[in-house]
Structure formats: C-alpha cells, structure tokens
Design brief:
The chain has helices at 14-17, 101-113, 124-128, 202-205, 233-238, 255-261, 265-273; strands spanning 2-7, 27-36, 39-49, 52-61, 68-75, 78-79, 131-138, 141-142, 150-158, 161-170, 175-183, 190-201, 216-217, 219-229, 241-248, 251-254, 279-292, 295-305, 309-312. By secondary structure, it is of the alpha+beta class. A hairpin with a 3-residue loop joins strand 18 and strand 19 (309-312). Helix 6 (255-261) runs antiparallel to helix 7. It is elongated, with a radius of gyration of 23 Å.
Length: 314
C-alpha cells in the first residue's frame, strides 16, 4: 500500500506501531508499505519533519524477542533546531518555524525559566522494548547561529544500550566528530559524550556583529568528555563528570583585547576607542576544565600573546 501519515509528533505512533520513534516537530511523511511474513518495510520514504526534508527507507522485523528497526535516512537540508525535540526540548518557536502547540508552550516555559537544557524525562521502558540500526546523513544544515555545513551519524540500539557512533558535523574548515552513548539498562540512565573539534578556525566560530573583523584568528582544537546519570538531558548534565579542553596553537589577536588581558586599561580602551584593528601574535592559548557533579572548574587557563601572558583559573 501507499501510505501517508501526518501528526504533531512521531513519538505518538508508539501505541500503534510499537516502535519508540524519537520526539519530533509536526511531520508529514509518505511511502510504500509492504509486509512479508513478520517483516514490515517502507520504501521511497519522503516528506518533512518540522522544517527538514526526510527521505530513505526503513523496516521493522517483528520475528524476534524484540522488534528490530533498520533504517537508512537522509535529508537534503536539516533545520538544526529540529534536533532539539530528540533530546526532549522544543524546536525553534520563532515566527515561520514549525512547532506544535505543546512544543511552543514548552519553549515559552524554558524561556521563562531561563533554561538552556530540557528537563523532559526519558521513557526507558520504550527504549528497552526494541533494537535498532539507523544511519542518517544531511547534505546541508541550516543553523543561523552555528557554522555547520553537513552531518552524519550511525545509531545502534541493543537491549537498552544506545550508541551514536561515526558522529560528524562538518564546519567551513574542520569538523566535530565523536560518539555518544545512552545506557538505559539501568533505572536511571547514564549518558556519555566524547566529542573532538579538529582543524577548526576561531574566526569562523566566534560571531562578529556589524561586519567587523574577528578579534581572534587562527586554528582551534578541542575535546569534550562528559558522563552523567539522569532521566533527562538537564539532570544528566547537572550530575556530569569529565573534562573540557580547548587549544589554540597559534594565531592572532586584536591588540586592544591583548592589552586588556594584561589589565592595561588605558592602552586597551584607547585602542578600542579609536577602533584600531591592529593585531598581534597569539603564541598559544589553552583552557582546561574539570567537570565534577555538573560544575566546570577551570584548573588551567593560559593566554600567551606578544605583549601579555595571562594565566588564571575559575
């Protein structure tokens, strides 16, 4: 049969299909549905989820102890804020963006609470009820506040252990890569992330308003390793342990900011007042944070410029 489905959230299909689809913005999808014994499949999948297009194929094998979902999905353009729903948050609720009334209400609550991370609890029972192997790739990413270009990920789920490996987000130069894991075999799931930033450029990551020049230029690398237990993204990060590291092995910094680092207010403010764009060498910069129970502590901060060497913690 050829089928078309539309609704407010793919997760609402659980009672009908037994498949724990992630939370999504409003969707409209169509494809060719077939059943062969205990194997259900949808080919020629197409449509939209939120403001992102979606295509590919998927199948559900119900012959085993747990259903097995296999999918190969792709987007020509991924609207990055649509991913927020996967983690229990709302997509962008700005005018013109696609979101359900419930998601708009959640966005308003989070804004009123000044909350960045969603606190929606995870239903671990649904995750344990199915195994899965899913590949996804986006040829382009629409993210006005982030310099993302494309992305891909492979997700496997077996007996309550979800692993997102081969995770990659392409930048104009460089990429973010790594893996994430959600262990839902316990009553309180444990979330782990290990991400690397490689071959990036500071001037492409630091937003500059008014068309001015970036205050910092040069290469940038980084690493994030965090692990925390909690029923939501907010609670997991509020209990997270691990470390965060950023390294700039060289580059240039606007001289006004270098002087301000050394608390040379007269010269620094004077350069800012005259809108001087003069730059000096950035020999290196390092920021290392230890995470303990949801608190990041900067134990090593070094900023070595031509006129000033700044060190600190906090």
């Amino acid at each position: 049969a050829t089928v078309t489905a539309r609704g407010e959230d793919l997760a609402n299909l659980y009672d009908l299909t037994g498949a724990p689809f992630p939370n999504t913005p409003p969707y409209r999808l169509s494809g060719r549905l077939a059943r062969r014994e205990r194997l259900w499949s949808i080919d020629g999948l197409g449509g939209r989820i939120g403001d992102s297009d979606m295509g590919g194929s998927l199948s559900m094998d119900t012959a085993g102890a747990r259903p097995f979902l296999k999918a190969d999905l792709r987007s020509r353009t991924l609207d990055f804020d649509d991913l927020a729903t996967v983690f229990g948050g709302p997509p962008s609720t700005a005018p013109g963006e696609t979101a359900s009334s419930e998601q708009r209400a959640m966005g308003a609550r989070m804004a009123a609470q000044r909350r960045l991370l969603p606190d929606a609890p995870l239903n671990v029972r649904r995750i344990r009820a199915i195994d899965a192997d899913v590949s996804y790739r986006a040829a382009a990413i629409h993210a006005p506040k982030l310099p993302l270009r494309a992305g891909s990920v492979h997700v496997s789920l077996k007996n309550g252990l979800l692993v997102a490996d081969r995770l990659r987000l392409d930048l104009p130069q460089g990429a973010i890569s790594g893996r994430a894991q959600l262990d839902a075999r316990r009553d309180i799931p444990v979330s782990t992330v290990d991400l690397k930033l490689s071959r990036a450029r500071m001037e492409q990551l630091l937003p500059v308003s008014g068309g001015g020049q970036a205050p910092l230029t040069g290469p940038l690398a980084g690493r994030i390793k965090l692990s925390g237990a909690g029923l939501s993204v907010h609670r997991a990060m509020a209990a997270a342990d691990g470390q965060v590291l950023l390294v700039a092995p060289g580059g240039e910094i606007r001289e006004a900011f270098a002087e301000l680092l050394g608390v040379n207010l007269t010269k620094g403010l004077g350069l800012l007042w005259t809108k001087s764009q003069t730059k000096v060498d950035l020999r290196c910069a390092v920021a290392h944070f230890q995470a303990r129970d949801g608190v990041l502590v900067a134990d090593h901060v070094v900023f070595d410029t031509e006129p000033v060497l700044a060190v600190g913690s906090g």
